[in-house]
UniProtKB/TrEMBL annotation:
This is Protein BatD. Residues 1-19 form the signal peptide. The keyword Transmembrane helix applies. Keywords: Membrane, Signal, Transmembrane, Transmembrane helix. InterPro entries: BatD. The chain crosses the membrane at residues 452-471.
Length: 594
C-alpha cells in the first residue's frame, strides 16, 4: 500500500511538472525596446532598455547612430513564481547622449533564445536644440510642474446674464508620477454669481489628454453658476496642496526607478468670463428675469363645484433655466371667488447643464355664489439664449361653474379680485336663525367667606415656606459647586458635539471638528482638566493613572490623531462611520473604567 501511494504521488508530481512546462512553452517569446522618452534636447540623456521574457544568448545591441554611449550595458533580472506560474524578465540597459540634432532611429537589437534569433522593433527619437534645464538635472519640483496640472474647465466664456455656466475642476496627473494625498487651500467664492455645487461622491481616475499628451485625471469639484450682472466677471481659482511621488534618475537593483516624495501647491488660475446683458429691444413688459427654455400652464383641480367647496388653481413653469431666480406671474380671479395666498412649490434638480424641473404657485379658491366664473388668460415671458429672442406664453381661459349656492345680487357683473380680496355681498337671509327669546335662568351662588377656597387662600403661603427654604438651600449648594457645574456643562457639550458629528456624517471638516470637540469636552468632564492643558502625553499619563487599559487609551489617541489628520487628508464616508462607531465604543469603555 505504501509503494502504491508513493507511485501515485510521483505520478501527480510528474503531471504537475508537465503542466507547468507546457504552460511555460505556450507563452510567446517577447523581446522589445523601451525608451525613456521619444523627444529630448541636445543636452539631455536617453535611457534605452532591451527587455525579454526568456533567457537568451549572444545579445547584440544596435550601433546607436547619432548617440554616444555613456553607460551600459547593465543587466537586471527578475524571476518569480505566482500560483504555480513562473514569470521571468531580463533587461539590458544603456544611457546615451545625443551627438547632434535631428531625427534618429534606435535600430534592431538581436538575441538567440532556444536556438532562434529574435529582433526588436526600431524606434524613432527626435533630438531638438538644447533645453534650459535638462530633464536629468531637474529637481522633484521641476518634474512636478511639468507633470501635474489643475484645470478649471468653463462651459461658456460669453454667456448672457442669468444663463447657466458650469465649471469643472480637473486634476491631470502624468503616468510617470503618483499623487498620494491632497487638501484644498483656497476655495473660490463666486462673487456676482448665484452658485450651486454638484457634489462629487467619489474620486474616480480616468484616462484623458492634456495639451496633446496622455494623462490620468480626476474630477475634484463641479459647480453651476448663474451670472447676476453683465460685464467681465472673474472666477476665483481653486488651490490645492498636493503630496506626490516623483521619479529620480536613480534605479534600484531590478532597474526600476527610485521615487522621492515632495509637496506641491497647484492652482487652477483665475478665469474671466464676459457676460452679455439681456437685450432691451423687444423685452416684454411682464418680463421677470426668466432665462432658458420653458413651458407654461395654468390649470385647476376641478371645473365644476358647489358654493363653499374649494378648488386648486396652479400656475406652473417647467423646463431648463434659472427656475429659482424669477417670479411667477400672478393669477387674476373674479371678485366673487375667495382666493387665499398661494403656496409655492419647487421640484428642481441641478446638473452641469443648469437647473431642470418645475416651479408653481398653488392657489386655494372658494366660491361663495352660484354662477359661471371665467379665469382670464395670463402670460409668462422669458429670454431664450439659444435663439437670442424673447418668447411669451399665454394660458387658456378657464371657466369655473358653481352649480349650487346663493345667487349673487350684482346681476352677473363680476369684478376681478384685487389683492385677493372680494366684496361682501348680502343674500337677504343672514339673520334668520338669531334667537330672540334666550330663556335665561338665575344661577345660585355660594358665599366665598367661610368656604373651603377661603381657608386654602389664607393657609397656602404658610405651606409654601418650607418648600422655599429647601429650594433656596439647593440653589446655594449648586452655586457653590463651581467644579461640578463645569463638569456637567462639559459632559453636556460632549453629548451635543457627538450628536452634531453624527448629523454631519459625509461632511469631512464639520464632522471631525465636532468629533474633536466631543472628545475634548468628555476629557474635561472626566479628568477635570482644561483645554489649555491638553497634550497627548498628559492625556495618556492621566488615563494610565486612572487604570484605563492600553487598548482604550490607544483607541482614544487614535481618534484624536484622525481629527488632526482630517484637516490635511481626504477621508471617506466609510472612514467617518468607523471613527464615529469607535468614538462611541471608546467613550462607553472609559465610562465603565472611570
Amino acid at each position: 500500500m505504501k509503494r502504491m501511494a508513493i507511485h501515485k504521488f510521483l505520478l501527480l508530481l510528474f503531471l504537475f511538472g508537465s503542466a507547468v512546462g507546457l504552460s511555460q512553452e505556450e507563452d510567446p517569446v517577447e523581446f522589445e525596446t523601451n525608451l525613456s522618452k521619444d523627444k529630448l534636447g541636445l543636452n539631455e540623456r536617453l535611457r534605452v532598455d532591451f527587455t525579454m521574457n526568456r533567457d537568451g544568448d549572444n545579445f547584440t545591441p544596435p550601433d546607436f547612430e547619432g548617440f554616444r554611449v555613456l553607460m551600459g550595458p547593465s543587466q537586471a533580472i527578475s524571476s518569480s513564481w505566482v500560483n504555480g506560474v513562473k514569470s521571468y524578465s531580463k533587461t539590458y540597459s544603456y544611457t546615451l547622449a545625443p551627438t547632434q540634432r535631428g531625427e534618429f532611429t534606435i535600430n534592431q537589437a538581436t538575441i538567440v533564445i532556444e536556438g532562434k534569433t529574435y529582433k526588436t522593433t526600431p524606434k524613432k527619437v527626435e533630438v531638438t536644440a538644447a533645453v534650459d534645464k535638462p530633464s536629468d538635472q531637474m529637481t522633484a519640483d521641476d518634474i512636478a510642474d511639468q507633470n501635474l496640472h489643475l484645470v478649471a474647465e468653463v462651459s461658456k466664456t460669453n454667456p448672457y446674464m442669468n444663463e447657466a455656466v458650469s465649471v469643472v475642476y480637473k486634476l491631470y496627473v502624468s503616468p510617470t508620477i503618483n499623487v498620494s494625498n491632497f487638501r484644498p487651500l483656497d476655495n473660490p467664492t463666486y462673487n456676482n454669481f448665484w452658485s450651486q455645487d454638484i457634489p462629487v461622491t467619489s474620486y474616480s481616475v480616468k484616462n484623458g489628454t492634456y495639451e496633446g499628451k496622455s494623462y490620468r485625471y480626476v474630477i475634484l469639484k463641479r459647480v453651476v453658476l448663474y451670472p447676476q450682472k453683465s460685464g467681465a466677471l472673474e472666477i476665483e481659482p481653486l488651490s490645492l496642496d498636493i503630496t506626490l511621488d516623483v521619479p529620480t534618475n536613480r534605479r534600484d537593483f531590478f532597474g526600476q526607478p527610485i521615487y522621492t516624495q515632495t509637496n506641491k501647491t497647484v492652482s487652477a488660475g483665475k478665469r474671466t468670463i464676459d457676460v452679455k446683458p439681456l437685450p432691451l429691444a423687444g423685452q416684454p413688459s411682464d418680463f421677470s428675469g426668466a432665462v432658458g427654455s420653458f413651458r407654461f400652464e395654468v390649470k385647476t383641480s376641478k371645473r365644476t363645484l358647489k358654493a363653499t367647496e374649494s378648488l386648486q388653481a396652479i400656475v406652473e413653469v417647467e423646463g431648463n433655466g434659472n427656475l429659482k431666480l424669477f417670479q411667477l406671474p400672478t393669477l387674476e380671479m373674479p371678485g366673487s371667488l375667495e382666493v387665499y395666498e398661494p403656496e409655492f412649490n419647487e421640484n428642481v434638480r441641478t446638473t452641469l447643464s443648469g437647473m431642470q424641473g418645475k416651479v408653481s404657485n398653488n392657489y386655494t379658491v372658494v366660491p361663495s355664489f352660484k354662477g359661471n366664473y371665467p379665469i382670464p388668460p395670463i402670460s409668462f415671458s422669458y429670454f431664450d439664449p439659444d435663439d437670442e429672442t424673447y418668447k411669451t406664453l399665454t394660458s387658456e381661459e378657464i371657466n369655473i361653474e358653481v352649480t349650487s349656492g346663493p345667487l349673487e345680487s350684482s346681476g352677473g357683473n363680476i369684478p376681478l379680485a384685487s389683492g385677493n380680496k372680494r366684496p361682501v355681498q348680502s343674500t337677504g337671509s343672514q339673520f334668520h336663525f338669531i334667537k330672540l327669546s334666550p330663556d335665561l335662568t338665575p344661577k345660585m351662588e355660594t358665599p366665598f367667606f367661610g368656604s373651603l377656597n377661603y381657608y386654602l387662600f389664607f393657609l397656602s403661603p404658610l405651606l409654601l415656606i418650607p418648600l422655599a427654604i429647601v429650594f433656596g438651600r439647593k440653589r446655594e449648594a449648586i452655586a457653590s459647586d463651581v467644579a461640578g457645574r463645569k463638569i456637567k456643562r462639559a459632559n453636556k457639550l460632549a453629548r451635543k458635539y457627538l450628536f452634531k458629528a453624527k448629523r454631519a456624517m459625509g461632511n469631512k471638516d464639520e464632522f471631525y471638528i465636532a468629533m474633536e470637540k466631543a472628545l475634548h469636552n468628555y476629557l474635561k468632564a472626566k479628568l477635570k482638566i482644561e483645554t489649555s492643558e491638553f497634550s497627548k502625553e498628559k492625556i495618556t499619563d492621566l488615563l494610565t493613572k486612572k487604570n484605563v487599559d492600553e487598548d482604550t487609551i490607544g483607541g482614544f489617541m487614535a481618534l484624536l490623531k484622525n481629527c488632526e489628520m482630517a484637516r490635511y487628508s481626504p477621508f471617506s464616508q466609510v472612514q467617518m462611520q468607523q471613527d464615529y462607531d469607535k468614538a462611541s465604543e471608546v467613550i462607553s469603555s472609559l465610562d465603565k473604567q472611570l
